[in-house]
């Protein structure tokens, strides 16, 4: 295990803007909830909190949660609330269009919202005409290397599922919001 709790060899690709967006959302939510406590007290803050948490949940799902996770045995792609896992032997090809696309052996194409994306070359300041390889191309190379080096046992079936913890959190926030409306109108 690594120091961050992931097994050895696991690599996660996310949109770089996702971490920034979730950081801003956390700071904004804490500020708004703290301001509500200071101005109106804990009771009123608890009536306001589900709306702030709902906005935070939307930012979290749209900006941060989508990702591509690879290891020696296969891939897990999470696009918003939908999760797809499969072994490397299920992959027929990997493409990098506007985003990473896996073509699977069942004939479907799986676009990855949170994985590497196509971008132009990055220019180094101060050097004329000198450019590095874009991050999306480097990530694609790493993913293709894992695919090519996959053992014959990496043939896990394609499993599509929902992100149950996120749906449960949404349900709790909606119930809290309904209770807040009922309490405020009582």
Automatic annotation (TrEMBL):
- What keywords tag this UniProt record? Membrane, Transmembrane, Transmembrane helix
Low molecular weight protein antigen 6 PH domain location is 66-110
Please tell me whether the keyword Protease is annotated for this protein: no
Ranges annotated as spanning the membrane = 12-34, 40-60, 166-184
- Among its keywords, does the record have Transmembrane? yes
What name is this protein filed under?
A: Low molecular weight protein antigen 6 PH domain-containing protein
Upper classification of the source organism reads: Bacteria, Bacillati, Actinomycetota, Actinomycetes, Micrococcales
């Amino acid at each position: 295990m690594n120091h961050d709790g992931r097994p050895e060899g696991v690599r996660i690709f996310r949109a770089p803007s996702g971490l920034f967006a979730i950081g801003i959302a956390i700071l904004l939510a804490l500020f708004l909830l703290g301001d509500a406590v200071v101005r109106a007290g804990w009771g009123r803050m608890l009536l306001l909190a589900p709306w702030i948490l709902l906005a935070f949940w939307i930012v979290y799902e749209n900006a941060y949660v989508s990702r591509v996770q690879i290891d020696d045995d296969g891939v897990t792609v999470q696009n918003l609330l939908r999760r797809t896992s499969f072994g490397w032997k299920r992959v027929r090809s990997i493409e990098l269009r506007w985003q990473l696309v896996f073509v699977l052996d069942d004939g479907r194409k799986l676009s990855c919202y949170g994985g590497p994306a196509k971008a132009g070359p990055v220019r180094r300041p101060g050097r004329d005409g000198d450019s590095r390889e874009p991050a999306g191309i480097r990530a694609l190379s790493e993913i293709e290397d894992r695919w090519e080096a996959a053992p014959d046992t990496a043939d896990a079936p394609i499993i599509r599922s929902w992100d149950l913890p996120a749906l449960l959190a949404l349900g709790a926030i909606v119930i809290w919001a309904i209770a807040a409306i009922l309490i405020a109108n009582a």
